[in-house]
Amino acid sequence: MSHVDAPLNSDEVVLPAATLARAERICAAVMILAGAASVLGWILDATQFASSWLTAFCMVASLATGSLFFVMAHHVTGAGWSVVVRRLLENVTRTLPLLSLMFIPIALNLGRLYAWNDPARRLGDPSLAHRLLWLGPAFFTLRTLLYILIWSLFAQRLARWSSLQDETRDPALSTRMHNLSAPGLLVLAITTTLAAFDWLMSLRYAWISTIYGVLFWSGGFVGALALLILIAYALRSAGIPARMITAEHYHDLGKLLIGFTIFWTYISFSQYFLIWYGNLPEETAWYIARRVGGWNLVSWALPIGHFAIPFFALLRRSVKRNPRALAAIAAWLLAFHYIDLYWQAAPTFATQGPRPHWLDVATLATMFAASAFVFLRACRNRPLVPVGDPRLGESLAFKNL
Amino acid sequence: MSTSAQDSLARPLLVEGGRTYASLTDLVAGLVERKPPRWWLPAFLASGALATVGVAMAAYLISTGVGVWGLNEPVGWAFDITNFVFWIGIGHAGTLISAILFLFRQKWRTSINRFAEAMTLFAVVCAGMFPLIHMGRVWLFWYLVPLPNANAIYPNFRSALMWDVVAVSTYGTVSLLFWYVGLIPDLATIRDRTSGLRQKIYGFFALGWRGSARHWREYEVAYLLLAGLATPLVLSVHTIVSFDFATAILPGWHTTIFPPYFVAGAVFSGFAMVLTLMIPARELYGLKDVVTLHHLENMSKILMATGLMVGYAYGVEQFVTWYGGNDFEKYTFRNRAFGPYAWAYWTMVSCNVLSPQVFWFKWFRRTPWAMFAVSIFVNIGMWFERFVIIVTSLHRDYLPSSWGMFIPTWVDVAQLAGSFGIFLTLFLLFLRFVPMVALSEVKGVLHEQLEHAHAEPPPHPASRRKEARS
Amino acid sequence: MSVAPMQTLGAIAACTGAEALVAAATRLRDAGYVKFDAHSPFPIHGLDAAVGMKPSKLPWIVLAGGLFGASFGYWLQWIWSAVAYPLITDGKPFNSAEAFVPITFEFTILIASFTAVGGMLALNGLPRLNHPAFASDAFARVAADGFFLTVDAADPLFDSHATPAFLAEIGGFDVALLEEPST
């Protein structure tokens, strides 16, 4: 079925160079300022720095892998409607290699972050002996770098073929992207699971939960959807024509957002519920630590802010079709995604209750600014929609029933 | 620009053979109106005989006692709960196809959803039977119902078994509603094409449907809402089934991945059963224009994807067991793979994880008999999965002095066979008396297809070619 | 025609297809008819607007049903486990909210589903034993492959001569009056 040429011109869907340059300058400035603040914080309070940095790292990593998942799922299912947003997601996944740089401060602070790396415990805790086969500092670091390498390779390959298709318009490239994405999803599932086990679950090494990988992924995917909605909304104000991403596309993104918010709730509740019901001390310790002092408040804030409020807000069709309203909910969910990760990581260090610190902001700003910079660079030379995709016409003309 | 790639990307036709509204109606409604094909009666009698065996076994158990099964200490749950989980899982594909694929706008589902929903209903019937007869004294079932009474007998709402009763009955009821709502327009079709008593019966169930724009509007909203309700429902049902095990602190049962893992397994087994039933049915009833190779290919892809999810769960369980280092857990998993029931474990792994891997190759995804073979393997594998989870965790737990083995009796086996008889009997009745393809929905798809063909004249060559090959 | 005096219930016309039906319904609406309906074997996108309908109220009804189901499900477990028969089981509190989630959820879905089906039928005025349109023999094709317009005789613009003529003008064929013997 040969589609009529896309009713969008290539030059309509490229950000003006001046806008890009200005945005890049802002990102660079924020990155330098926040980065300097982070370094200062590292010197002043290394443990607080490490804790904040790890949380921010998990945040950007979950968003980038969530976006990679979306791109791959799009290719595997041969989805038509999401073609117009695919390039934006591809550009987000271009930030994946950056994670290897962001990981350096974690690798240098393993002793402060992870109890399993504490020499005193190594001698005193016999249950740790066999775990150290997996959790040794060298193997831990190597593994993380390997995950990042694998993700980056997949992301780079898919983005390159996608750019190539802009020029050649060869539909065979779509088939190749499809064929790479099927095994890619499998690899992505395994590596993100292990990454979640490594980065977050091993903070309390005696605690195990088999669902943890799915939990990390579900939160990251909600975050990635929210981020995508915000990017699309920002582009609209930057002058990209509204008929590129229409109310129909927002409607679908909104449906996915509510669906996966429910899914996140389901997974989080399943983990909590089974541990609560089983009532085994080695498992409940994780949740008891999150009922101490102010943490109890955060534990209650999550089901309300990460589920109930966005759920009822997103029920109405008119809200999902209104870009401004949807973007507001997306921003809210993105914030709660961070709170969720904070709630998973920080109680290990702030045992008496949450201790918000300016370093939380500084580290997150550093990483977001750096990622945004890479994202904007990726936007520089390519149209913001895959103009060579044979299904672009279908996506532009897409209507919800 | 390569044309073959262009072909493989093009949206395949979902209704083939140049069908019109009228010929589609004749094809599907004709199956209900005409005499059944010659094989139908013998098949019905055979499955009816098998169903009778099932009823007789249940009667034998109720009159004699649960001891006629191979259950004993320490294995107090074996075939019965295995069969229960197996059947309820099969049902889930029906809801997945009718609700989740509807929400994801997968139009190809319209050809198979009626079929799959019927499968759901009959699978729930078979599933519900097992916990009931496992009680032995079935007349005490009312203890589960919250009725004020003088004996202070009350249902324990903190027990997973009570949740199960509520979840499965809700699931059965909502599935029936969903199925019936989908049927109303098609029953009206048959009402208008027949006469006499048959017209009265179908007319009664069609409720006076006359396809008015007002009808359709409310109908579509109701259908969408039901799909939105059935989607979390189907997740919750197998989640609650998994709670039967995961809330107990038994090694091999108490693990947090159980809820999504059970749901994936349920969809996996259900899709296998849809393929097992659909492949012969489309041959025997000449439905190849409506259930095309493209439909079968999609189903085999879902089969492979869900199979990989199940494989992921097996892997995560094994890894975390090693990582967690709990001796009892480690022993349970070693015992599963290398203990006396190792044959069951490896049957499960090879059927569920290995056999669907052939679907990486297109040939297997487009060859009905190969798909049929894999679907049988998956049915077997998923039955063994529940058997492995249930029996291997029970037969050797904390105290070696209380270890034992479970050996099924002939009654166990006959009861399982009988449940297949009940399922097939109900299914054959469905094929005979109910339009097995959702006519109004397929017409909607055909309408889009005709509109599209109108806008872009040449019919797509690729799908013609595929048709010629099948 | 027949001997008994006939009562006119409305007029009916067939259309060639889905697009013709939408076009004709739009013309009827624009001409000022209000009590008319379009009938088709499958739902047609855009027909509801052509017939001039407002968005459905059903989602709100179902939301209410779901909220009722949730409250009822929780109330039932609470009254039974914490008030009527307070017994400690599993070492859990009498009112153990977590343990009540599964059944609360199931009740939500159950009541909401019944509301969806019941509400749909009620809003459609179904089940209904007979309808003027069934007086037409051609109408038997409606659930197979027929597309029809019906105008109710109660419509203020209805006229047993002008309306059929107008139906023919806007693309209807096999135009007929729906009649039954008056009682």
List keywords for this structure.
heterotrimer, A: 401 residues, mainly alpha, 74% helix, 0% strand, C: 183 residues, alpha+beta, 4-stranded antiparallel sheet, elongated
Question: If you had to describe this structure to a student in words, what would you say it looks like?
Answer:
The complex is a heterotrimer of chains A (401), B (470) and C (183). By secondary structure, chain A is mainly alpha-helical. Helices cover 74% and strands 0% of the residues of chain A. Chain A is globular and about 65 Å long. The N terminus of chain A is likely disordered. By secondary structure, chain B is an all-alpha fold. Chain B has one domain. Chain B has 17 helices and no strands. The radius of gyration of chain B is 24 Å and the shape is globular. The C terminus of chain B is likely disordered. Chain C contains five helices and four strands. In chain C, α3 packs antiparallel against α4. The radius of gyration of chain C is 25 Å and the shape is elongated. The mean pLDDT of chain C is 81. Chains in contact: A-B, A-C, B-C. At the B-C interface, α2, α6, α8 and α16 of B face α1, β2, α2, α3 and α4 of C.
The quaternary organization reads as: heterotrimer
Helix content of chain A: over 70%
Strand content bin of chain B: under 5%
Taking all Cα atoms into account, the compactness measure Rg of chain B is 24 Å
Count the beta strands of chain B: 0
- Domain count of chain A: the total is 1
Distance between the termini of chain B: 28 Å
Determine the number of helices of chain A (DSSP H or I, runs of at least 4 residues). 18
N-C termini distance of chain A: 23 Å
| SSE ordering of chain B | HHHHHHHHHHHHHHHHH
